[in-house]
Inverse folding.
């Protein structure tokens, strides 16, 4: 039996969460997006006035998310995939690469945050500082898309593309492949 419960992505808690807020610094996309009003599960889960007050107080501190979890399951830490993109890039090649990465993550229901380096100087600075020296171009700055798992650098588009071609995207992202996926089956064959 499934039930709705509250969780806070900023604490890394929850399963299959969908953030209800959006900012210019980044958007979280998970297995399903909800509109910016409280969906029906909140009204059934939060019945008393004190619960509503607590929920709104918590929302002021952290982005509020609706999580679907099994009643017997405990909250599990989630890894956050961050994809640094440039929303106003003049390069069609960069736009296609960004869309390729984001489209793949969405299609495979892999939760991620989009971090726009064109709209937010802090995102640009953080991305440039955290791409390792051996992955930077000989001249200039690293170009988007750049992919991180939390703050751990995972690679650029070329590394992502190679992992996708080898059915190793979950390993590339530092995630566990879901049971039944091509990647999980390939890992099982290698271990056998």
């Amino acid at each position: 039996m499934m039930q709705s419960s509250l969780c806070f992505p900023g604490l890394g808690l929850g399963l299959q969460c969908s953030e209800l807020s959006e900012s210019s610094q980044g958007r979280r996309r998970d297995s399903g997006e909800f509109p910016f009003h409280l969906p029906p599960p909140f009204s059934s889960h939060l019945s008393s006035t004190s619960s509503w007050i607590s929920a709104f107080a918590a929302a002021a501190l952290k982005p509020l998310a609706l999580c679907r979890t099994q009643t017997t399951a405990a909250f599990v830490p989630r890894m956050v995939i961050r994809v640094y993109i440039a929303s106003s890039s003049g390069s069609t090649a960069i736009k296609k690469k960004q869309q390729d990465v984001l489209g793949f993550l969405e299609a495979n229901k892999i939760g991620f945050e989009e971090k726009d380096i064109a709209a937010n100087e802090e995102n640009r600075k953080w991305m440039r500082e955290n791409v390792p020296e051996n992955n930077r171009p000989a001249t200039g700055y690293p170009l988007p898309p750049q992919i991180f798992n939390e703050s751990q650098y995972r690679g650029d588009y070329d590394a992502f593309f190679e992992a996708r071609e080898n059915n190793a995207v979950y390993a590339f992202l530092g995630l566990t492949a879901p049971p039944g996926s091509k990647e999980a089956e390939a890992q099982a064959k290698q271990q056998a």
Summary: DSSP finds seven helices and eight strands in the chain.
